[in-house]
Design goal:
Largest sheet: none
Number of strands: 0
Radius of gyration: 17 Å
């Protein structure tokens, strides 16, 4: 497996992790109010806080990876 394949596999893994965390957070969408906001009573629950923290962590890992490797991936795909 070359470097490009390794980078793409790592990126796909991070996307999968972030999508799983987003799916766990979407469970709380049914509680949104008329303005589309999640009520404070839901945000105060430990379950929501854990889901939100998990999503934020996964997003930040993907963001850091893309910031570091996106250029190299694009350059290798063009070659």
């Amino acid at each position: 497996m070359n470097t490009l394949d390794t980078l793409i596999a790592q990126q796909e893994l991070l996307y999968t992790e972030m999508n799983a965390a987003a799916k766990a957070l979407k469970v709380y969408d049914v509680h949104r109010d008329a303005m589309g906001l999640t009520p404070d009573s839901i945000k105060a629950t430990l379950e929501w806080k854990a889901a939100k923290a998990s999503f934020e962590q996964a997003f930040q890992k993907l963001r850091a990876f893309n910031g570091k490797h996106a250029k190299a991936i694009r350059k290798a795909q063009r070659a």
